[in-house]
Structures are given as C-alpha cells and as structure tokens.
Specification:
Elements: E1 4-11, E2 20-25, H1 51-61, E3 68-73, H2 82-91, E4 95-100, H3 105-111, E5 117-121, H4 136-148, E6 152-159, H5 166-178, E7 184-188, H6 199-206, H7 209-216, E8 223-225
Parallel strand pairs: 2-3, 3-4, 4-5, 5-6, 6-7, 7-8
Antiparallel strand pairs: 1-2
Length: 226
C-alpha cells in the first residue's frame, strides 16, 4: 500500500504530547543538501507493498503502548495510496501525524481531512524554491491549506548555514506571517560526515538575540530547537 523504508517504534518528540511510532516512507524528489535520510530518497530501495501488512501487524501489537503513527520520509505525499494507508491505520485507533514538505498538493488535499497533526518544512525563501524542488506552487497551496484549516500544525525551517542567512530567514518569516501561518519553529542544522560546516560558528550566528527578536515580530512564540 505504501513503501516503508524504516520504522522508529517509540518517539515522544515527533508528535507533540503523544507517544508515537514513526513510519518512514520510501522516496523523495526534493534536493535538500542537509538531508539526514539520504537512504530514503530513492523510490526503488524499499520493501514491496506487501510489507504494509507486516507494518500493520507491528502497529496493532503496540496499540496499548502508542497513541499515534507519524508518517515521515522521504516524502509521504509521493505515496499514491497514502490516503488508503491512513484510513486503515486510523481504523485501528491511532491518531495520524504527517511530516511533509507539502510538495504534492493533490495528495495533501486528499489526506488533510484524515490527519490529526501536520509538521511541514519550509526550506528556503519561496522565490528560491527551485533549488530544492521544481514545484513551488504546490508548496504555497499546502501552506495556505494549513493556515486556513483546523488541523494542529507546525511550520519549521532548518537553519542550514550553507543555504540560508539571516536576511533569508527573516524574509521567510515575513512570507509565512503574510500567508496566515501562526506556528513557526526554527531548528539548527546538524553537520554530518557528508555535509559539513562550522557548527559552533553557524549556531552562534543564528541564535543571536537581535536576530531572534526580529523573528518574534512576526512570531512572538517562535520555537528554537538547538
């Protein structure tokens, strides 16, 4: 039904105030330089659809231990049968959280009424989105859907010092504010062996109080994850 590239059995951080299981969907068309799930980018390196039955059995056995299922990735919105999978999981009594880039609005629109929480990554200024994904109009539609909808949400930006600077992040905050977004979070980028930068310098740059106070002009309750 959906291609699952990995599972985290228990998490307390991926769905606010819920104990959840994370299903990582296989496949993502975005080109994020800081991606920590490179093994999930390919649409081919996954178990076949029959594995969803195994995943469902896994979830049922944990029904008394977890409240929710988080669909992450990769990018879940490129699973053609995502709606069907969500319906089946919800029938088993789980709440559903979706972690997404918003990059496929057709599927997002299909599943929006079924999900209980959505965390959407807003990666770069809207005008720069072609660097990441050649379909930025879908990004905008998804943001507007979230802003006007009733599903709990968080929009978040990873502060990649190779991709963003303070002016760009400020322009992103202003853009989101103008679209009606209320909940925004910034998270510090993590360097890896394959993606390096001066972590200490980069982090001190972005967590400067003057910079954060400018963000608070648009989002007084901005969340910063270090």
């Amino acid at each position: 039904m959906i291609k699952v590239g990995g599972i985290v059995p228990f998490t307390t951080i991926d769905y606010p105030e819920k104990l959840a299981t994370v299903l990582f969907c296989q496949g993502c068309p975005l080109n994020c330089p800081y991606c920590h799930n490179q093994d999930l980018k390919s649409f081919n390196d996954a178990k076949d659809d029959a594995s969803f039955d195994e995943v469902l059995d896994f979830l049922i056995k944990r029904k008394k231990l977890v409240d929710a299922v988080v669909l992450s990735g990769g990018e879940p919105l490129f699973q053609p049968k995502l709606k069907n999978a969500i319906e089946v999981i919800k029938e088993k009594g789980f709440k559903i959280a979706l972690h997404t880039s918003g990059a496929n609005f057709k599927i997002f629109d299909e599943v929006y009424g079924l999900i209980d929480y959505v965390a959407m990554d807003f990666k770069v200024p809207f005008e720069d989105y072609d660097v990441i994904y050649k379909g930025k109009e879908d990004i905008l539609k998804s943001l507007i859907k979230i802003a006007k909808g009733k599903v709990d949400y968080e929009i978040r930006t990873t502060l990649d010092p190779n991709l963003l600077n303070k002016d760009k992040v400020l322009s992103m905050a202003k853009f989101l504010h103008e679209k009606g977004i209320k909940n925004y979070a910034l998270q510090l980028c993590r360097a890896t062996d394959d993606y390096k930068f001066d972590k200490e310098k980069a982090h001190s740059f972005f967590i400067d109080d003057e910079f954060l106070n400018k963000i608070r002009e648009f989002f007084p309750n901005i969340v910063l994850r270090k």
